[in-house]
Task: inverse folding
């Protein structure tokens, strides 16, 4: 970089810094930003107010698709289409995005006879969508449109057209898609949530589609992490403490569950119990003389985060996982597993 260019760059940066530090300029910038947010919020409110039977028809169209929903749009509408496809796919409605230009060069083959198409265009006259729309109409593939103007070529061709309310763009020149794309994005979310509720999309299904990251961790259940079968340390109340301590040592959970003749959990012996009863006669005592009755338990279908909360509140490191026995002590249940706090922390839940 020459000395002259360096001087000009330094001067430009200095001017920018001085402008950025002026209170009047900062106020104008904030006012412009607030105006954008208000206009886009007005667009969303207007969209909510005009939801009608067309929205019902759009949901019915989506629910009738046996395959996947193919979403397409050009420019900013295309970016919104990608996000809508991702949201639908992650909430139980199979969907993916196809670029309209690529569709005209072979990607139309991604659309099967059981699929549907969602085409996005603010003007409703996007020429790049013509081949895709023609392909859908010729093969009887359901076509849903999201447009900003009515009537329009795309809106007229669609089986169902969702028309955005006429709201000003937040761009000061009224040109850059801002309010319109915000409304498209909101309408896509509305369709996704409507489909979730219609299909009864559950937290279990959500976890299956979100195995990674914080979302996946939030839906991990106790029975996904618990130790089972021979790994569960249990004994009866008549067991001598010497044998119970061997079980505690072998299983390495720092505790042993106590069950009655029906297999129902009635107590627990922990390291703390051993300390409280430590004397020369401990080894010859019976477990029933040492145990703490009615231990804390949790069901296998509970979220692991719930188990962690219970452990923290009770200041314990292990929980027996139980299922109802149906007997007189059914509230305690039969131990089917055990969960250690380290199991939860290793799963990334904290």
Result:
């Amino acid at each position: 970089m020459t000395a002259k260019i360096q001087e000009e760059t330094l001067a430009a940066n200095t001017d920018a810094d001085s402008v950025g530090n002026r209170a009047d300029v900062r106020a104008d910038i904030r006012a412009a930003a607030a105006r954008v947010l208000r206009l886009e919020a007005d667009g969303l409110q207007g969209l909510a107010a005009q939801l009608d039977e067309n929205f019902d028809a759009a949901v019915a169209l989506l629910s009738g698709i046996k395959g996947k929903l193919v979403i397409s749009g050009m420019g900013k509408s295309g970016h919104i289409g990608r996000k809508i496809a991702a949201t639908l796919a992650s909430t139980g409605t199979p969907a993916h995005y196809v670029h309209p230009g690529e569709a005209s060069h072979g990607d139309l083959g991604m659309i099967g006879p059981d699929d549907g198409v969602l085409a996005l265009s603010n003007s409703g006259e996007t020429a790049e969508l013509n081949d895709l729309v023609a392909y859908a109409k010729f093969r009887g593939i359901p076509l849903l449109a999201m447009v900003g103007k009515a009537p329009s070529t795309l809106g007229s061709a669609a089986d169902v057209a969702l028309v955005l309310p006429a709201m000003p763009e937040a761009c000061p020149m009224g040109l850059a898609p801002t309010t319109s794309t915000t409304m498209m994005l909101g309408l896509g979310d509305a369709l996704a949530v409507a489909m979730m509720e219609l299909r009864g999309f559950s937290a279990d299904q959500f976890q299956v589609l979100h195995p990674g990251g914080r979302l996946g961790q939030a839906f991990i259940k106790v029975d996904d992490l618990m130790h089972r079968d021979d790994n569960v340390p249990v004994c009866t109340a008549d067991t001598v403490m010497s044998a119970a301590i061997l079980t505690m040592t072998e299983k390495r959970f720092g505790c042993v569950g106590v069950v009655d003749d029906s297999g129902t959990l009635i107590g627990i012996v922990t390291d703390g119990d051993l300390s409280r009863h430590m004397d020369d006669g401990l080894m010859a005592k019976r477990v029933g003389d040492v145990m703490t009755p009615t231990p804390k338990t949790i069901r296998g279908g509970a979220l692991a985060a719930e188990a962690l909360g219970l452990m923290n509140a009770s200041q314990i490191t292990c929980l027996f996982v139980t299922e109802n026995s149906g007997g007189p002590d059914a509230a305690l249940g039969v131990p089917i597993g055990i969960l250690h706090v380290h199991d939860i922390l290793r799963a990334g839940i904290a």
About this structure: The radius of gyration is 31 Å. Confidence is low (pLDDT under 50) at residues 326-330. The domain at 222-346 is CATH 3.10.580.10 (CBS-domain).
